[in-house]
Write a structure and sequence with these properties.
Elements (H helix, E strand, L loop, with lengths): L2 E4 L3 H12 L4 E4 L3 H8 L10 H11 L2 E4 L2 H7 L2 E4 L7 H11 L5 E4 L7 H9 L5 E4 L9 H6 L4 E4 L3 H10 L1 H5 L4 E4 L1 H32 L3 H9 L18 H16 L5 H11 L1 H13 L6 E5 L14 H11 L3 E5 L4 H8 L3 E3 L3 H5 L4 E4 L11 H7 L4 E4 L6 H6 L3 E3 L5
Parallel strand pairs: 1-2, 1-4, 2-3, 4-5, 5-6, 7-8, 9-10, 9-12, 10-11, 12-13, 13-14
Helix pairs in contact: 1-3, 10-12, 10-13, 14-15
């Protein structure tokens, strides 16, 4: 079996590399020769933990190829993944693939698309003898390789038993490990993608609202989250105070689900409330800062972390970016450091922030440090050195990454989220 993956962005790069790692020959194809040649040379254009290693391993093994020849890629592939990061070019890609593919070719839709898309495409391709499968993928920035290799489930939206058998063969290492395969309709598979994201947004909003209450009653939101997460009906994932929903895919899925509900004149009250709580997060952080220093006007404030979460360079939907903007608009002089996301952050912040080469430079002469992204390396910083650099030993930890007892024992004024 040979697999063709159309696209050269985040979805296509992760998917092609991980399927090749299963032992199946894969060609990743895109019309952009610059991006394709860059991938072949190991230049991703973004940072994703462990992905470069997987690509190098499979290119060396001869299982993973990159090319711009769509004709050759489609004609030799039994399964073709449409894995563009947006559905803007979806119809154009399908038209070109339909002209080239042999009857019986399976077309897997990974690109995020509105409910009803797969059914529309299947009706269009029926005369060509092609089978469409809608497969929602659940990749989290920063641990996408792990998510692909250890998924909670595989969801296949199709009415074709043969397509299911073929894709079970593609995912044989996962199926043999016992990963459940859920076969359902096109529309249900598309809803699963959007509803999963919406539920996580609701869960995050819930714990963040309770964190605010914890601060008022001298409770500890971290212990609360741990106790709630140990309940099998709830689970610990995405139940950390200070977390926000971010990333281009997550925000796109929520917007798409909201638009669908509005079109059908259904009011999603819970999702709307979750969105409002998520958006208000940056104002909550500003309030914590103001409680510590009264005003940010003219103050030097160092920010640690700009990506929307650790182990990724993506700043799409990043609360760190929102906090930086809010501080600058209130007169603060903001300096920032991030291990990998500075290039993408510069495009978002338009010169409102001074960028630093290391976390100690961000602390040099600052009135406080605001830890905005939970990069693990921030736990092991030399905080004696940080303290010497700061004008005032104040740390606002928006992710509860640091040990509050240790920080206070070192003489820091430590402010967490939901901490007594």
């Amino acid at each position: 079996m040979h697999i063709g993956v159309i696209g050269s962005g985040y979805l296509a790069t992760v998917t092609s590399a991980c399927i090749a790692d299963f032992g199946t020959p894969v060609t990743c194809c895109d019309s952009s020769s610059e991006r394709i040649y860059g991938l072949a040379e190991g230049k991703l254009g973004f940072y994703e933990k462990n992905l470069s290693d997987v690509i190098r391993r499979n290119v060396r093994a001869g299982r993973l190829h990159y090319g711009t020849d769509l004709d050759a890629t489609v004609r030799k592939a039994e399964v073709i993944y449409l894995a563009q990061d947006s559905c803007a070019e979806l119809d154009e890609s399908i038209t070109r693939v339909a002209e080239l593919a042999d009857p019986g070719t399976i077309l897997v839709l990974l690109s995020p698309a509105a409910v009803g898309t797969a059914a529309r495409i299947q009706a269009r391709l029926r005369t060509q003898g092609m089978t469409v499968v809608s497969q929602p993928v659940f990749l989290t920035h920063g641990c996408a390789v792990e998510d692909f290799n250890w998924p909670d489930r595989i969801v296949l939206g199709t009415s074709s038993p043969q397509a299911v058998l073929t894709l079970k063969q593609v995912y044989r290492p996962l199926v043999m490990r016992g990963v459940p395969v859920i076969v359902t309709s096109f529309e249900t598979a598309e809803m699963v993608r959007q509803a999963s994201t919406a539920f996580l947004a609701t869960k995050i909003a819930f714990i963040n609202e309770l964190a605010g209450l914890c601060e008022c009653v001298q409770a500890d939101a971290m212990d609360l989250a741990m106790a709630l997460g140990l309940d099998k009906k709830i689970g610990p994932r995405c139940l950390q105070p200070g977390t926000t929903i971010g990333g281009s895919f997550a925000n796109g899925e929520i917007e798409s689900l909201t638009a669908l509900a509005e079109e059908k004149k259904i009011r999603l009250r819970i999702l709307q409330a979750a969105r409002e709580v998520n958006v208000a997060n940056s104002n909550t952080v500003l309030s914590k800062i103001l409680n510590a220093v009264n005003t940010v006007d003219g103050k030097e404030i160092g920010i640690l972390g700009l990506s929307f979460k650790p182990h990724t360079s993506s700043v799409a939907g990043s609360s760190s970016i929102a906090v930086a903007r809010l501080l600058a608009s209130n007169g603060a002089n903001v300096r920032a450091y991030d291990p990998v996301a500075l290039a993408e952050a510069k495009e978002e912040l338009d010169g409102t922030v001074r960028y630093c080469e290391n976390p100690y430079a961000a602390a040099e002469g600052a009135d406080m440090i605001v830890l905005c992204t939970g990069w693990p390396e921030f736990r092991t910083l030399d905080f004696d050195r940080i303290k010497r650099h700061l004008k005032q030993p104040i740390i606002v930890d928006t992710k509860n990454l640091l040990d509050s007892v240790r920080m206070r024992a070192m003489g820091f004024q430590y402010v967490g989220v939901g901490r007594a």
